[in-house]
Amino acid sequence: MRAASDMDYKVVFAALEKVCDDNISVLCGLADVTYGTVAQRLVTCMKTIQEHGRALKPVVASFTAVYHHYDFDAQTPGNGYRTLVKVLQSCLLHIVHKGRYIASNYSRAFFRAEHNTSEMEAYCSALCQLRALLHLAQRLMNDNDHGQLYTLQDQDLSLRFVQEYSSMHKACFYGRCLGFQFSPALRPFLQTIVIAMVSYGETYGKQQSGISKAALSLLTSGKYVIDPELRGAEFERITQNLDMQFWKSFWNVTESNILSGFSRIASNPVQVNFTLTLPPVTLHLPLASDPRLSTHVSPPLAHWGPGPVHMRLVSHELREGQDTEELLRLARGDPAPASGSRLPWVQKQPRSPWLIIHFHGGGFVAQTSRSHENYLRSWSKELGVPILSVDYSLSPEAPFPRALEECFYAYCWALNNCHLLGSTAERVCLAGDSAGGNLCITVSMRALTSGIRVPDGIMAAYPATMLTTDASPSRLLTLIDPLLPLGVLAKCVNAYAGADFQTLQPAEGGGSLSALGRDTALLLSDLTQSASNWLQSFLDPNRPLGVTSSQRGNVARGDPAPASTPNSADFIHYPDGFMPLRSECLAFVHPTSCPIVRNPFVSPLLAPPSLMRGLPPVHLVASALDALLDDSVMFAKKLRAMGQPVTLTVVEDLPHGFLSLSQICRETQDAADICVAKIREIFERDGSTSAPHKRPKLQETFQSPGSSG
Known about the structure:
By secondary structure, this protein is of the alpha/beta class.
């Protein structure tokens, strides 16, 4: 999508107009009876695309004239309005490329007419839906305050927006057009994930083990490879109608011993990698203002009372303290620490002055430190630092504030016991992605309010800072994102908010498989509260219903739009003659109106200055294509306005969760390297400086306390 972002939109629309004219001219003159029907479909499709393009050109012009006002600053171009324009241009460039190919090759003997026609129709449907999203974004821009990316005042407006666009057709973005907005190197991976998920969904509920289900899924995946339309429709159904246990079960397979074993083979070897269990005892820590005085920190108590906290220690080198009996007593039957320390050829290193405390992502509902182990191993090697990753309890069994309590307790324990972790903790960095980024910020806020030492810095990758129902332009991307669809978010929203909470003591031994993951799901919880009230609209019996597949095809081919269902005009007024495609798949969501979503320890963007003043330097690394982009932009703006030190880096072409994809391609590795550079900056601040770090395809800026604009 770099080409789309760098290219002037007028050039893109001119190319689109020409390729449509060329195809219409060529195809209308064909008399080949073999391709006659297909040729007519293509002509109709190209005319529809041309109509969409002509309508969208002035819309894009209006955005490009003003969207710089919503950036963090002039050196960091990035916000949801920019992203929607980039995604649209990327779609147009795909159409132009395919259109040129069709016009040049249609009459050739081996031209695959049906295949190419179906692809063009799929992109025509995608363009129709993107046109609707741009229209919704226009409404947001018109109704929001200048420079604001969220609708903070008009809750009814947010509800109506989500009610409208949640009923829109989404399957076209999961079939032939899957991942068109991302780096080309990621598209095969995304296709694999989507096919695996829909295949797994077909076997879900059958009486087999997780691995058996995965094996059976492989046998059923062929049809989803051959038929992209079937894949898209099934993925849309799954993301809207299957329950939370499906998601837990699916991501649990990724943490099985077999799959994680392959992952470990491909990652950096480490000499220390084992799990710890902290008993629930009261801790005593010195006050930051007067170390002669102390305060106590209780163990986690929310929902079911005191309980242990599980963690993973990762260190590239064996360091002093990591093989002590005191630490090994906390290990949960993992032989790694003992065997590593007893090898005579392993040289024990001195304690590091640095320590990373890591909180993984996963929407607060899925994944564990084990699923994030790959990049943690790399960090430990590159930075020469031990890493303590916290396996906090997951929703829905452990809704807010249990995860925050456990992470804060682990942070306090690490400060008191850094000598056991191979560190002197002269510098402590909190690092996390998505939900983990949220926890980095809120744990620091807890440290401030408790009067204890705050970390020396925070590195938060694509964090969730606004878990409310407020709409923003970047969150419109949940309509098209295969890793962060609104239907999936809906399942996680109620889980973290506690709407379906039952007081159950979690099973012992949570960690790898039983704890499940958080990274992919975190994407979900990040939007937890934002989607939560949005989703109440699903239950409105008057909302627009889906159209049949034949109606959808008619719309995509330029036939009159279906008549709007009752009250649809109450939601969004579209231009005359235009209506987005509707979904056949209705979502069934249990709504929640928990006031907890506006708790500042849930949505730190809503925290008052008194809770944020005194935070350490915050380094935010966001993606331009992430539905949570606006969370990072607005949070960075708020910190800067308060005089707090903050940097914002925006990478291109990557989805939410790119840290867990760091080994997939060069672009994800470059983004992971940026995160490492930011952590190093925290450790070396006011000290020795490292060599300049090459940062391709990103924009960033640093704001020190008191700096302006």
